[in-house]
Amino acid sequence: MSRVELNGISKSYGTTAAVRGVDLAVSDGEFVTLLGASGCGKTTCLRMVAGFIAPSAGSILIGGRDVTRLAPNRRDTGMVFQHYALFPHMTVAENVAFGLKVRRVGAAEAHRRVAGALELVRLGDYGGRFPAQLSGGQRQRVALARAIVIEPTALLLDEPLSALDSRLREELQLEIKRIQQGLGITTIFVTHDQSEALTLSDRVAVMRDGLIEQIDSPAALYRRPATSYVARFVGRMNFLDAVVTARSSQEQYELRLEGPDPQVFHALGRQSAAFVPGERVAVAMRPELVQLGSEAPNRLRMSVEKAAFLGSRWLIHGRAGGGTAIFVELPDGGPIPSVGSALDIGWRAEDVLLFRHDDDTRSASAGAILQGEPA
Ligand SMILES: Nc1ncnc2c1ncn2[C@@H]1O[C@H](COP(=O)(O)OP(=O)(O)OP(=O)(O)O)[C@@H](O)[C@H]1O
Ligand SMILES: [Mg+2]
Which PANTHER family match (predicted)? Predict the structure, then answer.
């Protein structure tokens, strides 16, 4: 039983509230990722679970045991840090054995477990090397072996792959997942990389300003973001400003887009929030759910400014009337609009998401802050 629970955890540094009352329950064997922008409190949360930072308020339970006041080495957590934290003067095997030595595990047993852990991270032949003789990816494998060799109740990983190039990163993501699932170990992973979070996790907690804004499965987070902040942070999203003109039932809304040529839009308000006629809302649509042509539902005209080839698909940049940036994704193989042309685009009502307008007010610049945008 290795459930990890954070109950109302807060941490303040003077007047800075780094974490402001986080509740999180990670089930036995579950992989949960804390995802969020720099400074939102991810590392602080993880270090409180590990015991390196004492919370200002709240409690932490691991396997049902209250560990809030326990020292890190009494919590049975294995931690991997963002920056390589290997001892340079120790060999790989000595590095991995370190936690066992601290725990006074006998030499024969330690030798066996170190060999097993190195085998698990595919570094069975590297025990005699020093960290300086390893690549970055190999060093992080050693750090992972060192964390799991103590057979921790929970594995805590703070951006373990962020210093690696994208190819190696993807390879190690698969390795981490394989090892985590093989051991069935409860894991909290921290990253600011949304694709990494979606790839690895059973559930993702999107953090913002010291709080969890939404926690859900990767698919639910992507399809049903609870707030425009989450919608913007996870995947690409188009945003337009609109006013609710009618609400025909609990589920259906008629909207008028704001701008020089007001369009009528329809949306199925499947989210929890209800909106009232006259209310300003942010209307959001995924680039890849676009429909083309003059028959498209909820139709707009965009001027095409750029077409970027992404391999299996094209990312089309342009603007709607009023100048709002619009992104659409089209599969490779179909017709690709030329730069300077006008394109009729639209979204099905069930693919139009609505958010409170004051939820996150930067809707007009949505495209500009997305990650990994081709220039
Ligand atoms: N020792 C400290 N003293 C004062 N403020 C701190 C301290 N450690 C962290 N903070 C502040 O707490 C907030 C959260 O920091 P934290 O390191 O948890 O962020 P993070 O989400 O891990 O960010 P990143 O993605 O950049 O690693 C930040 O505003 C940071 O400046
Ligand atoms: Mg951090």
Answer: SPERMIDINE/PUTRESCINE IMPORT ATP-BINDING PROTEIN POTA, SPERMIDINE_PUTRESCINE IMPORT ATP-BINDING PROTEIN POTA
Q: Are residues 161 and 58 located together in one domain of the fold?
A: yes
- 199 and 258 in a single domain? The answer is no
HSE, CB side, 13 Å, CA atoms: give it for residue 306: 11
Nearest CA to ligand 1 atom 28: 39
* Centroid of ligand 2 to alpha carbon of 164 (angstroms): 16
Q: Is residue 22 part of a domain?
A: yes
Give me ligand 2 centre to Cα 360, in Å.
23
Identify the DSSP state of 330. Answer: E
- pLDDT tens, 53-91? 999 999 999 999 999 999 998 898 999 987 768 999 999
Note whether 191 and 282 are same-domain residues: no
Pocket of ligand 1 (CB under 6 A): 13, 16, 18, 36, 38-44, 192
Contact predicate 135/129, CB 8 Å: no
The CA-atom distances, in angstroms, between 149 and each of 45, 94, 102, 165, 330 are: 23, 12, 12, 26, 47
The range of the structural domain enclosing residue 262 comes to 229-369
- How many domains, in total, are found in the chain? 2
User: Which of 11, 19, 42 has the most ligand 1 atoms within 8 A of CB, as the residue to mutate?
Assistant: 42
Q: Is the pLDDT of residue 260 over 70?
A: no
* Domain identity same for 233 and 220: no
Instruction: Select from 225, 242, 271 the last residue of a domain.
Output: 225
Locate the DSSP E strands across 107-169: 154-158
250 shares a domain with 182: no
